[in-house]
Specification:
Blueprint (H helix, E strand, L loop, with lengths): L6 E6 L2 E6 L4 H7 L19 E5 L6 E5 L10 E2 L21 H7 L11 H5 L6 H9 L3 H7 L8 H5 L6 H16 L4 H11 L4 H9 L2 H9 L8
Parallel strand pairs: 1-5
Antiparallel strand pairs: 1-2, 3-4, 3-5
Bound molecules: iron/sulfur cluster (2 copies) and FE2/S2 (inorganic) cluster.
Length: 229
């Protein structure tokens, strides 16, 4: 006899629903009949579109996570939240120095950090968010770029920050400044960009543009990854 699927009871906007155990929050919402058109993207933990907050049964703590990666549990409470604030100034990277003055001008709010570490605890990528903010405050643009390298810009750090800092926007400026001014030139990258500009890959690019989604996915997952030296 087929084993009976275990169900868990969750609450969505106050309404109880029974959903199969082991579903992600996104799959549970869809199982319950919600059609998601916003706050969802890759479903694989990379795009950062699905940051969400929730409560677990009997736990006072407000939890944060990616809805496509977080598994539902008995008594979980899900509620809609407004989007994460992502105020960002417009800047011209060619006119900014790669040091603390750019951040004093564009992100003075980082100096309000009270070192509470809430951002680090909220990060689904396990990044040392507070440490990269502190590095920025000390003017260490390279350290911030390095510590924030795997940021997927989900916004959960900003959502929980009591000082209203948008950490990930400051961090991407650090990575841009670092890439433009501080890192050594990559010979492989320079050569590859030149080859593309000269049309060496036109045939392959045309093929990719015409490929249907299934073939494109297959090709992507079977790709060879070259490690540059
Ligand atoms: S949550 Fe905000 S105030 Fe707290 S450590 Fe992170 S950046 Fe600083
Ligand atoms: S640093 Fe912030 S925006 Fe980036 S992945 Fe972590 S929580 Fe998300
Ligand atoms: S949908 Fe892309 S990270 Fe969750």
């Amino acid at each position: 006899m087929a084993e009976k699927q275990k169900m868990v009871k969750i609450h969505i906007l106050g309404e109880p629903f029974y959903v199969p155990d082991g579903l992600t929050i996104i799959n549970a919402l869809e199982y319950a009949g919600f059609q998601l058109t916003h706050g969802i993207g890759c479903r694989e933990g990379f795009c950062g579109a699905c940051g969400t907050i929730f409560r677990k049964k009997g736990d006072y703590k407000l939890q944060a996570g990616l809805a496509c990666q977080t598994i539902v549990s008995e008594g979980m409470y899900l509620a809609q939240i407004p989007f994460v604030p992502a105020e960002k100034p417009i800047y011209d990277i060619t006119k900014l120095p790669p040091d603390i003055t750019s951040f004093k001008e564009l992100y003075p709010v980082i100096f309000r950090c009270v070192a509470c570490n809430t951002c680090t605890k909220s990060c689904p990528q396990d990044l040392e968010v507070m440490d990269y903010v502190q590095a920025l405050i000390k003017g260490d643009v390279e350290k911030t770029a390095d510590l924030s390298f795997d940021c997927i810009r989900c916004g959960l750090c900003a959502l929980r920050c009591p000082a209203e800092i948008v950490q990930y926007n400051a961090a991407i400026l650090a990575r841009r400044l670092c890439g433009r001014y501080l890192l050594k030139e990559s010979r492989d990258l320079t050569n590859r960009v030149k080859e593309i500009a000269e049309g060496d890959y036109d045939t392959e690019l045309d093929e990719l543009v015409k490929m249907d989604e299934d073939k494109l996915k297959k090709k992507y997952y079977e790709r060879e990854i070259k490690l540059f030296d």
